[in-house]
Design goal:
The protein has about 250 residues and is an alpha+beta fold. It is about 55% helix and about 5% strand. The protein is built from nine helices and four strands; from the N terminus they run H-H-H-H-E-E-H-H-H-H-E-H-E. Strands 3-1-2-4 form a four-stranded antiparallel sheet. Helix 2 packs across helix 3, helix 5 runs antiparallel to helix 6 and helix 5 packs across helix 7. The longest helix has 28 residues. The radius of gyration is 20 Å and the shape is globular. The two termini are about 30 Å apart.
């Protein structure tokens, strides 16, 4: 068991969360009639605890499966080639919980989150409703960057976050209508810029995108070692935030 990998894949977990994964891993190993719990059992347990039960009864059409495969491949390829997104762990098009597939990588980044929708547009000339969750996360993240964390040059180092909760009782917003329009404009610019950057990256690596999608259609799950073989070794860098999962 690679404890370092498991630790990196469980940031913010409480003792109870970790115990839950350990118990689930033991059950998985027991069902396979093993004498010991191994790395693959812990990985499968984490997938089940975080993503939900595998939906083997879920019937997906060939066309829908192709869309999901290219969507997840889009997330994977973008996160693989972005310098400041940490290592991708695996990609899957096995339905779990409410999702039809998932790309496990760390950390969350706007371009990586948009990778699925952009991939659909490039390959199929249209986007499916499966990108809704990605767009919701991206929009909330962009608003947080602009209006909470002071990361926008036009808005400046201002934060309208209210940790006291007092603003929730007010009928209006804690800033002017002009500021509200400026925030909306900066958020739109931020997301549109990231969208175009994502499109360029996937266009530059279109061959890898198609190859990964076909591999997903063939075997449903692609692990990190296979990703390195297909996409090449990633440049080393220093991770700054915990792991995230992008689901469709």
């Amino acid at each position: 068991v690679d404890k370092e990998v498991l630790a990196r894949l469980s940031p913010g977990f409480s003792g109870a969360d970790i115990a839950n994964i350990c118990n689930e891993a033991a059950l998985i190993a027991a069902r396979k009639k093993k004498n010991r719990v191994e790395q693959e059992d812990f990985m499968e347990a984490r997938d089940r605890v975080i993503g939900g039960m595998e939906r083997k009864s879920k019937i997906i059409s060939i066309k829908e499966k192709e869309i999901v495969a290219h969507h997840e491949a889009g997330h994977a390829v973008v996160s693989w080639y972005l310098e400041h997104v940490d290592s991708l762990v695996k990609v899957s098009i096995i339905p779990r919980g409410k999702s039809l597939g998932s790309a496990w990588y760390l950390p969350e980044e706007i371009c990586a989150s948009l990778g699925g929708r952009v991939a659909e547009e490039i390959i199929f000339n249209e986007a499916s409703s499966g990108a809704l969750d990605d767009l919701e996360k991206v929009t909330k993240q962009a608003y947080s960057m602009v209006s909470y964390y002071g990361l926008d040059k036009q808005i400046g180092p201002l934060s309208f976050y209210d940790s006291s909760g007092q603003n929730e009782r007010l009928l209006g917003k804690p800033y002017s209508e002009h500021m509200a329009q400026l925030i909306d404009k900066e958020v739109q610019n931020l997301i549109n810029t990231a969208y175009e950057r994502t499109r360029k990256l996937l266009t530059d690596h279109l061959t890898e995108l198609k190859k990964l999608a076909q591999l997903l259609l063939k075997q449903e799950v692609v692990e990190k070692e296979e990703l390195e073989e297909l996409l090449g070794k990633r440049k080393p860098h220093y991770p700054t935030t915990p792991s995230q999962t992008v689901e469709t």
